[in-house]
Amino acid sequence: MNLEQLRGFVEVARFGNFTRAAEELYLAQPSLSRQIAALEHDLGADLFHRARGGSTLTVAGESLLPLARRMLADAESVRRELAELAGLERGRVRLGATPTLCISLVAEVLSAFHAEHPAIELHLSERGSRALLDELAAGELDLALITTTDASSAERFTVTPLLVEELVVISSAARPPITDRDTIDLAGVAALPQIVFSASYDLRSATDAAFRAAGLTPEVVLEGAEMDAVLRFVERGLGVAIVPALVLIDRPGLRSVRLGSRRGATGGARGGPNGGSTLERTISLAAPVGVAPTAAVEVMRQTIAVGVTAFAARAGATMRLAAE
């Protein structure tokens, strides 16, 4: 039994005539007759009483008719839903991102995506990189924007580096600058009252490691805050903080100074001004291995790529595309 046979059966039942049904289906009448004969053979029962004046349903045909109509309607529903998905009229994207990215890049990306595809459901998980990879492995996410430096070694994921950004030191724009130079080293930062993140932040681990490697103990005035709270506390002059350059975009209440670490500091670093090095982190997009993305997920991936390029252009020297 196939859909073409069922469609032919329904049309013959509607017209009571094989010739008229064949014309409606744009088929030759012998072809339609063969379809119905094959269907009757498969079912083991005659479906029509055939007579010179027309064709009427047998008892078996009357039993099949409502089922055939329902099956054809279900098939059309499936075809319509798949067409809607292909046209991004329906669907779902489950995106994970770190808190730092949620208040900067992700906000821009989701806004742009929703404006173009308002019918697509968006689900966001805001967690640290390690937790996001766990959710990705469990099938709870489609994509994850992460900053974990060793994520590329995981066999369960494809990890695509997108953006490399410096860590900078921020202070309140309403207070005097913390230095009159273009950069400040870790020793200078350690002597300032500092607001540090929760221990669950990958950023906290990276900065702690840099201070340890330099043999420094920072003066901490507040510990354990989340990203949005840290930015607000700094704006009000409570202290300084080391943050990714990305979060400075569109925040006039903050000023930033590029961070240079002493020689020998560990972590992501490259040559910087005055012979020092700049602390950096790489933002990557992770996806599960062996899972074909839906049309909606693929468009989200493209939207993220466009957003990353725009952010890199706005941030200047503190940020660059990973491919550069």
Q: In summary, what is this structure?
A:
42% of the residues lie in helices and 26% in strands. The protein is α/β, with parallel strands linked by helices and 324 residues long.
Task: Write out key terms for the chains shown.
D-Maltodextrin-Binding Protein, domain 2; alpha/beta; Arc Repressor Mutant, subunit A; single chain; 10-stranded mixed sheet; two-stranded antiparallel sheet; 324 residues; 42% helix
Commentary on this structure:
The chain has 324 residues and is of the alpha/beta class. Helices cover 42% and strands 26% of the residues. The strands form three sheets. Strands 3, 4, 5, 6, 7, 10, 11, 12, 13 and 14 form a ten-stranded mixed sheet that branches. Strands 1-2 form a two-stranded antiparallel ribbon. The chain has a two-stranded parallel ribbon with strand order 8-9. α1 crosses α4 and α2 crosses α3.
Gyration radius over CA: 32 Å
Poorly predicted regions are 261-269, 271-276
- The CATH class assignment of the largest domain is Alpha Beta
Q: Which structural class is indicated by helix and strand composition?
A: alpha/beta
Question: What percentage of residues falls in helices of 4 or more residues?
Answer: 40-55%
Overall geometry comes to rod-shaped
Name the average pLDDT: 86
List strands and helices in order, with pairings:
Layout: H1 3-15, H2 18-24, H3 29-43, E1 48-51, E2 54-57, H4 59-86, E3 92-97, H5 99-102, H6 105-116, E4 121-126, H7 129-137, E5 143-146, E6 157-172, E7 183-185, H8 186-190, E8 193-197, H9 202-213, E9 219-225, H10 227-235, E10 241-244, E11 254-261, E12 269-271, E13 277-288, H11 295-315, E14 319-321
Parallel strand pairs: 3-4, 3-5, 7-11, 8-9
Antiparallel strand pairs: 1-2, 5-13, 6-10, 6-11, 6-13, 6-14, 11-13, 12-13
Helix pairs in contact: 1-2, 1-3, 1-4, 2-3, 6-11
